[in-house]
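In this section we walk through a basic example: taking a raw amino acid sequence and producing a predicted 3D structure, encoded as discrete structure tokens. The instruction is simple. Fold the sequence below.
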Amino acid sequence: MNIAGIGRDLLAGMIVFLVALPMNLGIAQACGLPPVLGIVTGVTGGLLVAILSPSRYAVSGPAAGLVTIILVAASDLGSYPQLLSAIVLAGGMQLLMGWLKAGRWIALVPGAVIAGMLAAIGIMLIIQQVPVAASLDKVSGAFSPASLALGVLALVILFGWELPVIRRKPVLRLLPGPLIAVVFGALGLSLMAGEASDVTTIELPKLASLAAWQAVMAHPDWQNALVNPQVWTVALTIALVASLETLLSLEALKKLKEQNPQPSANRELYAQGAGNILSGLCGGLPVTSVIVRSSVNVNAGARTRLSVIVHCLLLAAAVMWFSGVLSLIPMPVLAAILIATGYKLAAPKVFMLQWRQGLTCFIPFLVTIGGIIGLDMLSGIALGLVAQILANQLGAKRPRAISLEDRGDYFELSFHQRLSFLHARKLRRQLATLPQESRLMVHSREGDRHDPEIDTLLNGIAAQRGIEVQYLR
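The resulting token sequence is shown next.
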């Protein structure tokens, strides 16, 4: 690697660090845990995943999508050491999933259920963090005007930073919105002086020695955990949701930056499993690959995994030498960052997109949201899958079929009946037999009624392999 390449990776690592720092702190705080554990997670599990991951650009760390699972699990299990045991077991399950090559089954998860899962996570994040942003007392109903003002200020900055007038400025585009919100939140708190005495800030120990790091690291409780069925249930939930979020992040990352060869989903499961085992053993939260941080890494010009490693080392440096500065960050600002994250996951446009794709997508989408909010993550996903299967069955008139024929100078792909997400894996196998840069004529007798994700899969693979696609209706 040349000097210029190293310089770009170092700069990208610094930018990712500025995005990850407030997010890691906020996610740990949202889980009802000391914010420093968000840093512990990024430094331990995140660093190990960065070293082992087949992707050069994916950034792993604590994820907002697991906040609700951790909150419920911590309450059900009754102790953080038992939760840590579940995280380590979840890592072991991910290793097993990688060995079983389970990464290929990501194509079978319908898009409507995935969208419903993410939207439900977003809704629950907003519900959980609004009281934190206002320092609401749930018993008396009283709230802190100063906290509310800081939270609103942070939200204005976060959403304002996405406006085109800001994004068009290259210098401003390099500065992450969460960092700007944190800086102005800390300044606002200092200007309020005595009027903000009821506003809480994060509390971070100074981890300047190995003994200090060991003092904040809890450890799993194996004596009670292995015989507790709830621990195994939590472990399975974390393993499935974290793996799903990771693999979806990798799929999304492919659209931002091509890698040759493409990162193996199964190798990524190995890396994530190892990262979760280490994080759990060191007292950290579960890790997943996070598309927000990964996209920042790509847009910042990263060339190799050095940028991801640098961001992890900077997280460690932040709590080793700058914990006093970080302790100026108001809690309402961290809550606002998570509220903004939740809104992006459950924005009205997400609902409108599913509605425009038809009832066979919209109904499973709503069922997944309702099941996750009303029951739990795994139950909601299971209900969404059942709803999707029923919707597809009710909408189908004939047995489903896909055929691919070689016509000499082109190939003809025929969709004989209505297709659903259940056909995604079969379609992927058919397309894998096509030569690079070939011509493909798609004959879709009912193409206007099959699941939209079939077209998404077809067009995505065609774009990656330079296949020319024409539709015959």
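Looking at the output, two observations stand out. The mean pLDDT is 81. The two ends are 50 Å apart (CA to CA). In the next section we compare this with other chains.
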